[in-house]
Amino acid sequence: MIMFRKIKNYALWAILFIALIPIAHAQTYQPIKSWNNEVNNQIEAFLNETKLIKERKVAVFDYDGTLMGQVPFYMVDEALIDYTYHELANNNDETSKEKVKMMTEMLKGSTSSNEYVDNRVKFLSGMTPELVEEIGYRTFQNKYRNKIYSEMRQFLSNLEEFGFEIWIISTSPEVLYQKMISEEFGIPKDRILGTKSTVEYGRFTENLIPPRAADQGKADVIDTYIKAKPLIVGGNSRGDLEMTNKSVGLKIVVNPDNEKVYSESENKELAGHTLYSYWKEKEAIIVYCEDEEDKETSFESDQQGVVKNKTVKPE
Questions:
Q1: Bridge partners of 285?
Q2: Prediction pTM value
Q3: Pair 251, 284: CB distance under 8 Å
Q4: Which of 16, 174, 191, 277 gets the most CB atoms within 10 Å of its CB?
Q5: Which is higher by pLDDT, 239 or 26?
Q6: Shortest CA distance to 171 belongs to which of 137, 204, 194, 189?
């Protein structure tokens, strides 16, 4: 009788143990509240289809304007301009004076040109990666912390739920953004790519490492470093066009402009289109995230006369 009770107890514990073993994790899409049902259904259906994929599942995103607001100024510009005029301008050494002069000259031209992108690399030469990383991180904490789009944060969480590798490609110097993005989104630093230069004896040089992460260069970065066909690519601007067209699955476009009509001389593929009409024709998923100017924060870019980015409203 005692032996029978022991057997019953062992059997009961075995049943309880089996019941407590976690079942296979069910990948479930969490709808993004501010996006309409059509968008959520499209994304959910696509992600469910990817469950059967055994190879790498890669998603690539731009950063400024795609995952974080860019109104009134790009964070990269504000970070470097603020550092120049609040710190370097107070120093008397020749290196500081040269960098202040260089930034002043840079701001006379367009901040969206390839020349400006290259000049940022030259500007950072002689600095340590640790200093550049800290400049970006400090600017984010002080002025941009509330600019991350909650919708895109939720979207990336969904992608992680479905086993995606998430990569960032920005035209900004990658070290300037790596600490901030890694902490905010949990993305490894080596998956946060951007404009980069060589490091010698612990300091940046002026030697740009190709491809330049701008326009076609962003698409080339995918082939050079990621080495996989992305299933999802997200961007917001003209500079993300070639990269976004690398997607073999979903194309996500955030806040596309519907005012500027491109000429053939500017871009043959965009000729006669706004960004909005181009991506609408391409059947990309167009989403909107609120990006309003923070009028309580003081921006050095404003003091230096940098042209403000405009808020894009839903069509």
A1: 252
A2: 0.90
A3: yes
A4: 174
A5: 239
A6: 194
